[in-house]
Each structure stands twice: as C-alpha cells, then as structure tokens.
Write a structure and sequence with these properties.
The complex is a heterotrimer of chains A (303), B (287) and C (428). Chain A has 303 residues and is mostly helical. Chain A has helices at 2-42, 61-68, 70-103, 108-116, 123-134, 139-148, 161-189, 193-201, 206-234, 238-245, 256-265, 270-297. Helix content of chain A is 75%, strand content 0%. Chain A is flat. With 428 residues, chain C is of the alpha+beta class. Chain C has 20 helices and 14 strands. Chain C has a 5-stranded mixed β-sheet. Classes of the chains: A mainly alpha (303), B mainly alpha (287), C alpha+beta (428).
Chain lengths: 303, 287, 428
C-alpha cells in the first residue's frame, strides 16, 4: 500500500516537473530549437536570400568550401587572435586587481564599482566613445604622445592591422575588466582568512602565501572564468561591426561572427553563413561542455 | 633582529604604496573614457577633436542635448524610443525571471524522465551565436506577424538559457526539507513555488533581472532587423541615426550617448550591490 | 420580434458585402526610403495631397539611414515581408530586379502607352540598367554624379589660387593636397582632399578605367583586366595613405560630412550636386559667400580614357509580391511624387533625368551645373552586376590592405582577382 502511494507521489512530482518546465520549453522550441534546426538544414543548400526560386541541395559542399577557403581560415585566425589577446590579459589583470583590492582595507567597494562601470554602457555607446578616442586627433594619440614625450606621432589605431586588432581588444578589455575583477574578489572572499593567517604564522610572506595557498584554492574559479571568457570572446560581434561600419578596414578584424553576418546579409549566401555558424557552434559546444564538466567536478573544500 | 624587522616593514610599506598606485592608475585609465563621454557631450563638436583635448569645457553646450533630444529629423522621438527601450528591457527582465525560475525550479527539484536531456538541450542553445540563427529567427518572427511590434522585440528573448542555468544552480541548494514540509502541510506545488521558493530567491532573481535588462538595453542587431518604423526604434537604433550619412556632429553623438546611458547608470548606482556582488553568485554556485 | 431566418441571413450577407467592399477598397501602401530632411518634408506633403485626392489610399512612409537600407531591405525581402514601394541605389537594386522581386512599371496606370513611350520622356539611356526583357522596372528618383567641390578659403590660406591651381590630374591632386594639408606631427588636422570611401565602384573604378583597366572582362568571365592599371591606382592610394605621403585615410571623418561647416579642416570633397542644398541649409553664410566652387573629376596624366566619376541612380521600385491592385496604386503614387522635378531639384538638389527638366533653360543656370553635366557626359552608369555588392567589398579590402596594412599591391591585386574570379565561376 505504502509502496503504491510512494510510486504515485513520484509520478505526481514528475508531472509537476514537466509543468514547471513546459512554458520555457515552448519558448525555446519556437525561438531557439526551431531556428537552430532550420539553420542546420539551410547549411546543406545554397539558397540565395533574394531569390524566389527554391534553393538547390548541395550536401556537404558548403562545409568543404569553408575548409578550403582562405577567407574562412582568416576569420578563424582573427577570432583566435582576438580571443587569445583578450582573455589572457583579462584573466591576469583582473586577478591582480582583485588581489590588490582584497589586500587594502578601505575603498574596496569604490574600486570594484569604478572598474565595473564601463560594463554599464551599451556596446554601441562604447564603440562610439572609442571611435572618437582612437581618431588620429583623439585622446589615444594624445595620451601616448604625452606619456612618451613625443609630438604628433600617429599610432594609426584604426588603420594598421596590428593596431586595429589591439584597439578592439582594448575596448573589450576595458568593458569587462571590472566584471572579472569582481568575480575574483568574490572568489577570494570565499577563502577563509584563517587559512591565510595560519600560513602567516607559519612564517610565509605575502608572496608565498598567495602562490601556495590562495592561488591553488582559486583554481576552480579561475578555470570557470577562463572558459566563460573564452566563449564570450568567440562570440564577439558588436565592437568589430561598429568599427568596420565606421570605416575601419575589415580584413584584420573580420571575426567569424562578422563573417557570418556579411556572408548572409551582404553576399546573400545563407547556406554558407549557416554552415559557418554550425562550425562555430560545435567549437563552442566543446568549450561549454568543458565548462560544465569543470564546474561539476570542482569541489573546493576549505576543510 | 630589529634591523630585520625594519627591512621587512619597509618592503611591506613600499609594496602597499605600489599597490595603491597601481589601483589608482588602473582606476583612472578605466574612468577616462567615461569622463571623455561626459565632457565631450558638453562642448560643441569642433572642440572635441581639438588637440590637445580641452578637458574643461567653458560652460555646458546645451545645444548638444537639445539636438540629441530633438533627433535628426526634429521629431523629438527620443522620448518615445527611450520608452520603447525601457518597456522592452523591463518586460523581458520580468518575464525572463518568471520563465527561467519556473524552468530552473522544475529542473532542480523534480526528478522526471528526460530531465537531463532537457537541461542539456537548453544549455546547448547558449552556444549558438545570435548571428547564426538570425535569419531563421527573423523568418519565424515574420511568419508570426511580429515585425515592428513590441512582441517581436520581446518574445524571442524570453527563452534565456543562461537564466535557466542560473536559477537551476541556485535552486538546487534550496533545502528540500522546507519543500517537503510545505507539501505535507497540504500546500499545492504552485503555491509552494510562489510563496516559498520565489521570495527566498531574492539575490538570484535580482541578478537575473539585471542581466536580462542590461542585455536587452544593449541589443542592436535584432531590433535592427525587426523594427521598421521610427516610433518603434529602441535606443541603440536611435543612436545609430546620428552616425548617418550626411552630417557628423560628435557633440550631439556624445550627448546622445550620455542620455542613453543614464538609465543604466542610475540602476548601477542604486542597485550596485547586485551588480558588484551578484557575479559572485555565479562562481559560488556549484554544479 | 424574432427575425425570420432568411431575413437574418440576408442582413448578415449584406453587411458582409458592404464591409468587405469597403475593406477591399482601402489600400495601404508602405514606402521605405533613406533619410534626407529636405526630401522628407516635400514627400510628406505629396502623401497628404495624394491621400486627399484618393481617400481610399493611405501611405506609410518609413525612413532609415542610407547605409542600413541595404541590409534592412534584404532581410525584409528574404522574409517576404518587404514594403510596397522603396528606393535604393541602383547597384543594390540590381539584384532585386534580376531575381524578379520587383514589378515592372504599370505604364497605363501612369499615363504611358508602353516602355518606349516612357523612355522617351527621359534622358536617353536613363532606363538602360533597369530594363529587363523589354520591361522597365523602376522610375528614377535621382541620377547623380560626383565632382570636386573646392573650399576657396582653404586654398587661399595655403597660398594657392583656387581658380587656377586646382588639380586637373590625380598626380596634381597629391601635390595640391599636400600643400593644403596641415599636420600636428603625423596627425592630420586639415586635409586637402578626401576620397569617397567606401564607394569604390562609383569613384575608384573609373580611375582604373582611365588607365585602361577593367573589373571584369567584356565577356563577363575573367576577373581583372590590365594589371598595370590596377597596380598604378593601388599605388596611388598607398601614396595617399599613412604609409605614403600621409594625406588622409578612411578612418578620418568623411569629407562630405564636414565640408559644409567651412571649419578649415578640409579643402576638397568629392560629392554631388545635392551637396549644395546641404551647404545652404547647414551653413547659409558659407553658401552665400561663394567661397566654394566645383571642378571636374581629375584624370591620370597617362590616362588612355577620359572617364569621369561614374553616375549612379536611385530608382523607385515596387514589390512584385504586392497585389496587382496595390501595385497599380503604388505606381500611381510614385508617378505623382516624381511629377515635381523642379521641387525636387530646388529643395533637395537631386536631378531626375527627365527631358522636360533638362531642356528647361533654368537648368543650366544652376550653380556649376555645367561642370556636373560635362562630367556626366564623359562617364557612364556605375558598374552593375548581380554580385556588385561583393565586388565592392573585395575592392575595399584590397585598397585597405595596400593603404593601411602596407601590403604589396601585387599581392592585394592577386587576392582581389582570386576572390572575384571565384564569384564569377560560382564555384562551391
């Protein structure tokens, strides 16, 4: 008898589980799953966005084209350069800033808020501001010139390949340094002081304490944060879009997402664009799967 | 021994001083572009690209703000566009919280067949960049007649995978005993959800709401596709009007930037604790 | 009193008929166009007048920035959700025509017998690029070419005489611009001239053609004809840019946006007749002072063809997926709007190539119209191709690579050739 009652309780709970999940599922189905499946389907055809004729089936052609295409690999390269160039400094600097902030006694909140403030602006606004700063007559050149005591040197922030890439990285860095600093501050904050104190009593100085006690305990946070950053960087779009719309050259910063957008909207080649997106999706799936695995196995015990 | 102590003490002090210097320097570097935005909005365009940059403008050049409000066609549509952004962002935030909490709760606290599959599927959608599904999504929206409507701007974003993830992680740690006790007391599931679970999830809800609000406020690509009439434009679209073909007035552009940022800045200053501490929520929640 | 069934049925039926009749007659047209403050004013008036004349028709006019129009139009059409009436530059409209997304002109509705009758009312050759299989697919809103505007003040400030010392060749352009340029170290504070990036098909391709080069061979199969011509032009750009004489680059503010302000930051600009209208509005003193002038598009010293800057057009087109009734009203409305050529000319400064306008004696009296007309006489319609959009992007990237990234011209040209050839071969 009890057995039966327990069983129907299970069933009831299971049903409620579905009830709670269904509203979201419907939305996902309409606005996420269906478009994704549609995109996957499209990648096997060569539809021209303007044409009313039905597209022809091309099988894996879009994919093989991409693998052979110099342009595609260039956009992969651009994306990797951007991701690598952004997430490493972001990680390192935000960790340093977080450690410093935790080491001082006052103004902690102020510094965190100050570093975080750029994240509050929309990316359109951020791009507008930086476009003016990077203008040859703008603050970037003036700053560099006064720092280095030179006069009138133009660093071509938006013209030459290296500088343009650097500029996009700077904008992203500026926008997200606060976000990651705060993340690390919380991570550091969850490490009890007792550990640090114990280490100090044992004769460790600041440096060894950090390296042998704090940092290892911070590893899970660091890992999680790195993967999150990497995924964000792989998806980057607005900065590059705004810069190229304002006249900056496209080639050096033609990241995958921008390439997808241009291929679809400007070349009308929706099949190829969706093939690119599927490839990007696979890469990001791998990263996210990694992230979830890490967050699941991460088990920090402070003892 | 006295000598040793003094040396360590000096090192410590120098280090602390350097640290402060570094923090202050970094702080300044981060704030300068913001200061630029504010000061540039207060000066006429021809002063903005002057060399050297005149940090202190003589008086506030209100024409910039007037023109920013007025809009390039003189229609004062900014107010309406700002309202659109607020409405869309607010509605998305509100409903995202509701839908994500429901789904997160279902996934966290109820065992049912296919639960893991559903979760994996939802997580998978997080990895597709928007540009990939942009066109198919647009076609779905058009077929539903959503072009140039608020619904078109709001609906696609209620399916927020990250929101579901956040709420699920948060609610997993919710004590089962309380839930079971309520069930024994005869409370229905919706009642438990509404009166017990949701009220205690303040921090997570606030985080999610702010994240959703912020990402909608920022959104450029989707409104670009969906909005066709001037009245329905959102703030980012309004801003791009000023980067148009025929004139380029940096002063007005910066004034628009300032005006467009005010809501988020206000939110940031008043609800700062949710911004600054909330991210900790993400790393603190364990799978 | 209970109504008998048949009576009830009759009442319902007649109500239905009445409402559907009224409903069927109300036409709502959507019209998308790009921002232009002056044109918006007069076209809104035309809409009002038209709606008064035909109360069953309402027209909704939507404006967007010119640079975004292409993208917006594409997404709208691809979702089968496009406006009834729209206009785009012809290079962008070409694809729509080729894929039969736009409808041919309804000659009868606007008072013409047929295509030939319509064409005869316009400058010869006007409809060449919007004619397919003998049918005309658009009515011209404007036909524009660009010439060089000169700010006399800037010339005099540099010790030059604008009437005599303006550049007639591209080589002279470099020298003159150099004299006009003011710099703070490497940073340019006043430019002599600035090219019209990113409209490479309109402004840069003619430069190549002046030297005997072509984008695509006449049979449409081979990309890039006459490498030397291309390389000379690419090298010219390299000399212009930061790795050469440092006279400007695409990342400075576009000349046409700041020319009107007479702010001593630009000496010359490449733009069309309509610029005058904008100067008049933005800076009336500058306009009245006459301290500006227009001179012809320069030619290379060793040019083999005297080619001017290409002209392009905006044509009003009608969505082929609109109902035939809507299409008819759309053409009627378009014709009504465009039937005010002088107002368009005087208020918006755009030229409809209508014969009655061009023959009007007042026409050549307009400031510097003779310069524009002479330039137009020696140029041709902008290069049109289904993939023209893409080609322009490739050219843009080639020029940028040479000018900004200091890539060798031969390499850039090879990449350009490869990319265009690939599109031509339509290889997958």
């Amino acid at each position: 008898m009890r057995h039966k009652r327990g069983f129907s309780m299970e069933r009831k709970k299971a049903r409620w589980g579905w009830v709670f999940v269904t509203p979201s599922l419907i939305l996902f189905a309409a606005f996420s799953f269906y478009p994704i499946i549609n995109a996957f389907y499209e990648s096997f055809f060569n539809r021209n966005l303007l044409s009313l004729r039905p597209p022809s089936f091309v099988g894996w052609n879009n994919y093989t084209y991409l693998f052979r295409s110099k342009e595609f690999w260039l956009s992969v390269q651009n994306t990797l350069i951007f991701t690598g160039g952004t997430f490493l400094p972001l990680l390192v600097f935000s960790l340093i800033l977080a450690v410093f902030i935790m080491s001082i006694s006052r103004f902690r909140r102020f510094f965190q808020m100050a570093f975080y403030s750029p994240a509050v602006l929309s990316s359109v606004v951020a791009a507008m501001i930086w476009l003016l700063i990077f203008d040859p007559r703008g603050l970037a050149n003036q700053g560099m010139n006064s720092l280095l005591g030179t006069a009138g040197v133009n660093y071509n922030w938006l013209s030459t390949t290296t500088m343009l890439r650097l500029s996009t990285i700077i904008v992203y860095f500026w926008k997200y340094i606060g976000y990651f600093t705060v993340l690390f501050v919380s991570g550091l904050g969850s490490i009890p002081d007792t550990l640090g104190e114990a280490a100090l009593i044992d004769g460790a100085n600041r440096w060894t304490m950090f390296w042998y006690v704090t940092f290892p305990l911070l590893k899970p946070t660091t890992l999680l944060v790195s993967i999150m950053t990497m995924i964000q960087c792989l998806k980057t779009f607005s900065t590059q879009y705004m810069f190229t719309s304002a006249g900056a050259p496209t080639r050096p910063i033609n990241v995958i997402t921008l390439s997808i957008y241009n291929t679809a909207i400007k070349d009308y080649r929706i099949g190829r664009a969706t093939a690119m997106s599927i490839l990007l999706f696979i890469v990001m799936f791998a990263f996210t799967w990694l992230q979830l695995k890490v967050s699941r196995t991460e088990d920090v015990s402070h003892m | 021994m006295n000598a040793n102590k003094t040396r360590a003490w000096y090192l410590e002090k120098t280090f602390t001083a350097l640290m402060w210097l570094f923090l202050a320097g970094a702080c300044l570097a981060v704030i300068i572009p913001l200061a630029f935005m504010f000061t540039a909005s207060a000066m006429p365009a021809r002063d903005i690209l002057k060399m050297p940059y005149p940090w202190i403008p003589d008086g506030i050049y209100w024409q910039n703000f007037w023109n920013a409000l007025r809009g390039p066609e003189g229609t004062f549509i900014f107010a309406r566009n700002a309202f659109n952004s607020l409405l869309v962002s607010g509605t998305v935030a509100f409903f995202t919280v509701i839908f994500s909490s429901l789904a997160g709760y279902g996934l966290a606290k109820f065992k049912f067949k296919g639960r893991n599959l559903v979760f994996m599927l939802i997580m998978a959608t997080m990895m597709i960049p928007f540009e990939a599904i942009m066109i198919p999504l647009y076609m779905v929206a058009m077929r539903m007649g959503l072009q140039d409507t608020y619904a078109g701007l709001i609906l696609p974003f209620l399916a927020n995978a990250f929101g579901v993830f956040l709420m699920r992680q948060y609610l997993i740690t919710f004590p089962d005993e309380i839930l079971d006790a309520a069930r024994i007391d005869g409370a229905s599931e919706p009642r438990i959800f509404g009166s017990i679970v949701m009220p205690s999830s303040g921090p997570a809800i606030a985080t999610l709401a702010i994240l959703a609000f912020r990402s909608q406020w920022d959104s450029l690509l989707w409104p670009l596709l969906v909005v066709q009439s001037d009245e329905m434009k959102t703030i980012p679209l309004y801003i791009t009007k000023f980067m148009a073909e025929t004139h380029s007035d940096e002063g007005i552009m910066m004034a628009v930037a300032v005006m467009a940022s005010i809501p988020m800045i206000v939110l940031f200053l008043t609800l700062s604790k949710y911004f600054v501490n909330t991210e900790g929520l993400t790393s603190a929640t364990k799978g | 009193m209970i109504l008998k069934k048949p009576v009830l049925l009759l009442i319902v039926l007649s109500l239905f008929l009445v409402t559907s009749a009224v409903g069927a007659q109300t036409i709502e047209l959507t019209y998308w166009t790009h921002t232009d403050d002056n044109r918006t004013v007069i076209e809104n008036r035309y809409i009002e007048e038209f709606q008064k004349m035909y109360p069953n028709v309402t027209i909704k006019r939507v404006v967007n920035e010119a640079s975004k129009m292409g993208d917006l139009m594409l997404t709208a059409f691809s979702a089968n959700n496009a406006p009834d009436i729209f206009n785009l530059p012809i290079e962008q409209e070409y694809g729509y025509m080729m894929h039969h997304r736009v409808a041919p002109v309804n000659y009868a509705a606007i008072g013409y017998k047929d295509a030939a009758d319509l064409a005869s009312q316009y400058m010869p050759g006007t409809f060449d690029t919007v004619t397919m299989d003998g049918e005309i697919y658009g009515l011209p809103l404007e036909l524009t070419n660009w010439s060089i505007y000169i700010n006399k003040n800037v010339f005099r400030d540099a010790g030059l005489d604008p009437e005599k010392d303006y550049p007639k060749t591209w080589e002279e352009m470099i020298e003159v611009a150099d004299k006009l340029t003011l710099r703070n170290g490497e940073i340019i504070t006043r430019r002599g001239f600035d090219f019209r990036y990113p409209y490479y098909l309109v402004a840069m391709l003619p430069m190549v053609e002046q030297l005997g080069g072509q984008l695509i061979s006449d049979d449409g199969k081979t990309a890039i004809v006459n490498d030397d011509a291309w390389i000379q032009v690419l090298e010219w750009f390299r000399t212009w840019g930061p790795h050469g004489r440092n006279l400007g680059s695409p990342t400075y503010t576009a000349a046409r946006k700041i020319f009107n302000m007479d702010n001593n930051d630009i000496g010359m600009a490449l733009t069309g007749f309509y610029q005058q209208g904008r100067i008049r509005v933005d800076n009336p003193e500058f306009y009245e002072s006459g301290e500006w002038m227009v001179v012809p598009f320069p030619v290379f010293e060793n040019a083999v063809n005297n080619v001017g800057c290409s002209y392009y057009g905006h044509f009003m087109m009608v969505n082929a997926q609109a109902s035939s009734e809507k299409q008819e009203w759309a053409w009627k409305f378009i014709a009504y709007m465009l039937d005010h050529p002088w107002e368009y000319l005087e208020t918006v400064n755009i030229i409809q190539p209508r014969q009655d306008l061009l023959d009007d004696p007042r026409y050549m009296e307009l400031p510097y119209m003779n310069v524009f007309m002479d330039d137009m006489a020696r140029s041709h319609m902008v290069f049109l191709h289904e993939n023209g959009f893409q080609f322009e992007r490739f050219i843009k990237e080639a020029v940028e690579s040479v000018m900004l990234s200091n890539m060798p011209s031969e390499e850039a040209l090879d990449i350009l050739r490869e990319r265009i050839q690939e599109v031509l071969d339509d290889s997958y």
